[in-house]
Amino acid sequence: MDIEHFFLEKGQGAPLILLHGNGENCDYFRGQIDVFAERYHVYALDTRGHGKTPRGRAPFTIRQFAQDLLEFMDGKGMERAHLLGFSDGGNIAMVFALAHPERVDRLILNGANLNAAGVRRSTQIPIEMGYRIAKRFSGKSASARVNAEMLGLMVNEPNVEPEALAAITAKTLVIAGTKDMILESHTRLIAESIPDSRLVLLPGSHFVANKNPEAFNQAVLDFLNT
């Protein structure tokens, strides 16, 4: 492994790994860590090239991030864990659960998407424009190259077919905001495609865990404890 993850760790019990979204870091979950740590051994990771985790040399893709997660778990001697992923973190958790079903206890997908078509066009069009501009200048500017990689995740990833989700064996919660940047129809498609999943829509935006932590945390704990 060419990187070492920065992570926050708190609590005891079954491991619960928190995976943040694009361009963020583990601080996104500041409203969750203490609450979840009362019942679980919480690990909040900075993804490769995010926060305090180095970029490394491996590909900057959702599938590579899922491989990084596997190596993190192996390094900690963690056979299984609950996974909670937000946005791109949800995409990492989803891809991981498909590739390594035996390593996932319960799966929580918050604001995940299968492809760029699942994002509201009012949000996606500026992302695509920014990506094209950053890519054009990436050969001349280090900051443009970083920007192109980050935006590229939201333009080109994760490209999972809804039919593939039938292979997810973990008990799953799909959770999103009622005014999420992920289309509600897309969130419902994900939930309907995963066997026996639970769908929860909470009042709020894409960032409902951050903006409405009490309701989000309660929904997650209700799911984990049943």
List keywords for this structure.
226 residues; alpha/beta; Rossmann fold; seven-stranded mixed β-sheet; 8 helices
At a glance:
With 226 residues, this protein is an alpha/beta fold. The chain is built from eight helices and seven strands; from the N terminus they run ββαβαβαβααβαβαα.
Can you tell me about this structure?
The chain is an alpha/beta fold and 226 residues long. The chain has two domains: 7-115 and 159-224, Rossmann fold, CATH 3.40.50; 120-157. It is 39% helix and 17% strand. It contains eight helices and seven strands. A seven-stranded mixed β-sheet has the order 1-3-2-4-5-6-7, with helices on both faces. Strand 2 (15-19), helix 1 and strand 3 (41-45) form a beta-alpha-beta unit. Helix 2 (62-75) crosses helix 3 (88-99) and helix 4 packs antiparallel against helix 5 (142-156). The chain starts with 6 loop residues before the first strand and ends with a helix. The mean pLDDT is 97.
List the helices and strands and how they pair.
Blueprint: E1 7-10, E2 15-19, H1 33-37, E3 41-45, H2 62-75, E4 81-86, H3 88-99, E5 104-110, H4 121-137, H5 142-156, E6 171-177, H6 184-193, E7 198-202, H7 208-211, H8 213-224
Parallel strand pairs: 2-3, 2-4, 4-5, 5-6, 6-7
Antiparallel strand pairs: 1-3
Helix pairs in contact: 2-3, 4-5
Class inferred from helices and paired strands: alpha/beta
Q: Which percent bin holds the helix content?
A: 25-40%
Question: Poorly predicted ranges (pLDDT <50, ≥5 residues)?
Answer: none
> What percentage of the residues does DSSP assign to strands (E)?
15-25%
Number of H/I helices: 8
- Principal-axis shape equals globular
Mean pLDDT: 97
What is the CATH homology-level superfamily of the largest domain?
Alpha/Beta hydrolase fold, catalytic domain
User: What's the gyration radius in Å?
Assistant: 16 Å
- For the largest sheet, list the strands in their spatial order: 1-3-2-4-5-6-7
The CATH architecture of the largest domain is: 3-Layer(aba) Sandwich
| The number of domains | 2
Reported for the largest beta sheet, the result is:
7 strands, mixed
Distance between the termini: 36 Å
Strands, total number: 7
CATH class of the largest domain, please? Answer: Alpha Beta
CATH topology of the largest domain: Rossmann fold
> What is the string of SSEs from the N terminus onward?
EEHEHEHEHHEHEHH
